[in-house]
Amino acid sequence: MYGESTAMKVLMQARVNLFTAPGGDTVQILKTREHLEHLGISCDLSVAPVQDYGPYDIVHLFNYTRIQETYLFAREAKRAGKPVVLSTVYWDNEETERKADLGWRKKLTGRLSMDQIERLKGLWRLVGERQWNKANLNLVRKGFLGLQKEAIGYIDHFLPNSEGEMSLFQSKFGQQKVLPYTVVPNGIDPDLLFDGSPNSDIEFENCVLCVGRIDGRKNQVNLAKALKESPFPLVFVGQPAPNHSSYMKKLRGEAGPRCQFLGQLPNREVYRLYRSAKVHCLPSWYETPGLASLEAAAAGCNIVVTDRGSTREYFGEYAYYCEPDSVESIRDAVFRAYNAPKSEDLKRHIVKNFTWAKAAEKTVEAYERVIANSAAHGRGK
Known about the structure:
Radius of gyration: 21 Å
Strand content: 5-15%
Number of strands: 11
Helix content: 40-55%
Number of helices: 17
CATH class of the largest domain: Alpha Beta
CATH architecture of the largest domain: 3-Layer(aba) Sandwich
Strand order of the largest sheet: 8-7-6-9-10-11
Largest sheet: 6 strands, parallel
Structural class: alpha/beta
Number of domains: 2
Oligomer: single chain
Order of helices and strands: EHEEHEHHHHHEHHEHEHEHEHEHEHHH
């Protein structure tokens, strides 16, 4: 559809705190944009509503869990007559809210529904954090589930990270119709992971590494408990999520004598740590599948991952799986991974199948299909 003389122009939109509270979706968006531009696609990225949709052929939204901005952006794009695709970045987080160590939020989950909890979060953003905007007002007024159900009608095509994610999404939101989708897997950047920097960091050689935002969903406290008396050095990389300083304090309290906290590090240093470590462990309440696990596996680590989410679809028989609510399960998986030789098969599996370049190609295929369908039905450009 788009030849050399006609460049596709895409508007990407995502949550307002995409850069102030970065997560896996931040990496996914930036890497998707980077590799789309390598393919000649022009991409603008916004974390706020835009006034003029005119220049864009398609609008690409991210994250259905953080629904308030997604709903607003989708509605406005459809009012402007633009086709809309959504990278779902979704998993049902009810178990996390019920069981994970989330501080004051956990105290509410036994008394309130998920919809009520999310409305309270929206109210706190409005009143406590003074984030007065349409997105938070809609969340309080219409409710979390109300926004999720209504937004489905504004999306033309879905881009989940896995078949399992889409199956869950379909069962949750698409009971009345079959939702159109293309699986676009998360990935790694092999050129950056093996960029010629020093191959490893001797100080952290053969450590157990955990890279990720420090918060209750990532479940680092249970990992610290599992390895408190172990002979393995345990290294955490990452900073506390907003409003999770008490969780960080608890994590430090559970840390054993061989545990270190390195805080947030530049990617180049994180990649060196991957190459140094024997095991990377991410025992989260769910992962889809966890970008740090993908990177660590590609760098040669044995990996321990949660059995919740889409991890098995990515790692198959090559990973060591644990139950996030069992310290014993985490300990057993780490010990098995640590005592096994490093898996070259896992490394090859990731580098062959999961790269951002492949993800960009899948995304362009979906764009072209949606734009063509929109034009055929007289919608959008």
